[in-house]
Design a protein that fits this description.
Helix content is about 50%, strand content about 10%. By secondary structure, the chain is of the alpha+beta class. Strand 7, helix 12 and strand 8 form a beta-alpha-beta unit.
């Protein structure tokens, strides 16, 4: 990782950031390296880096995707850059693509499958999902406007890990995301199985919309409804009836609503009931995508 993968990714990210107009000194600060190293990366071009990554079965197209993700992440901060790098690297480890180069260097590892067992399949999917949710949470915490759309019951963000089949396969925030001094703040780091409620909502939605992998709950009122309509987002309405004041009542109401022909939808609006606060459940293909969409709603939400 440190000898081959990281230098190659640094070079590709440096080339991308330079194309975006950043100076060599700025790129060096973002990548945590020297300006001389950046100059060397830029002068040698991307081909060497792509060739180095090919030993991990990373194609040129994949390399471009990874570089774009990392360039965006490091521009938002060092922590986001590290989180994205870890997500990419553990995916490679879990696929077994690093085994060949590792065994060539250390023949004694011929029978080793530790990385595949640790990061492959559903276990690896959970590791990557935790990194993705952490990235999304940082986006919410950095937003000045997100608190506008936070409900009284606070917020949770869920991501289905791999082929999630149960709430234990869904990563969320233990204790939820709360308001602290006018900002959103996660109570604890994300983990699998942290919220049966929002995981159940997401899994029900995925049953009819498999492309949904992430969900976040927000406040729901007439202002949010207007913003959703203006942004062209389709809402499926549930609730509005007298129900017991439990989270499971929301899940059951959604289950019944989906038993018919709900049509296409981007969000579920639970209009609440006796003792139940109205909530919006917003869906997207990934954790960062749903967080960015939530921030977009917040920025469009009238303050008065």
């Amino acid at each position: 990782m440190s000898q081959t993968f990281l230098p190659a990714m640094r070079q590709l990210v440096a080339v991308r950031l330079r194309a975006e107009g950043l100076s060599q000194s700025k790129i060096a600060r973002l990548l945590g390296t020297t300006q001389a190293s950046v100059s060397m990366y830029l002068s040698s071009g991307p081909d060497r880096a792509v060739a180095a990554l090919s030993m991990f079965s990373v194609s040129r197209a994949d390399a471009d995707v990874y570089a774009a993700r990392l360039a965006s992440a490091v521009s938002r901060g060092a922590a986001e850059g590290v989180g994205t790098l870890v997500s990419i690297w553990t995916g490679i480890l879990g696929s077994g693509a690093a085994c060949g180069p590792h065994r060539a260097q250390y023949p004694g590892l011929a029978d080793c499958d530790v990385c595949v067992r640790a990061y492959g399949g559903q276990a690896g999917a959970k590791v990557r999902a935790v990194a993705d949710v952490s990235d999304a949470v940082r986006l919410l915490e950095s937003s000045d406007s997100f608190v506008r759309v936070m409900p009284a019951v606070s917020v949770n963000l869920a991501l289905a890990a791999g082929e999630a089949a149960s709430p234990s396969d869904v990563v969320a925030i233990p204790g939820r995301i709360v308001k602290v001094k006018g900002r959103a703040k996660a109570m604890l780091p994300p983990e699998a199985g942290a919220s049966a409620h929002i995981a159940s909502v997401l899994l029900l939605a995925r049953a009819v919309r498999p492309e949904f992998r992430a969900c976040i709950n927000l406040r729901y009122d007439d202002k949010i409804a207007s913003v959703l309509k203006r942004l062209g987002l389709r809402t499926l309405s549930v609730g509005g009836n007298a129900r017991a004041a439990t989270e499971d009542a929301t899940v059951e109401a959604l289950r019944r609503r989906l038993e018919g022909s709900p049509g296409r939808f981007d969000a579920v609006a639970d209009e609440g009931g006796d003792g139940i606060e109205p909530n919006l459940y917003l869906f997207a293909s990934g954790a960062r995508e749903v967080a960015a969409l939530a921030v977009k709603l917040a920025e469009s939400y009238p303050e008065s």
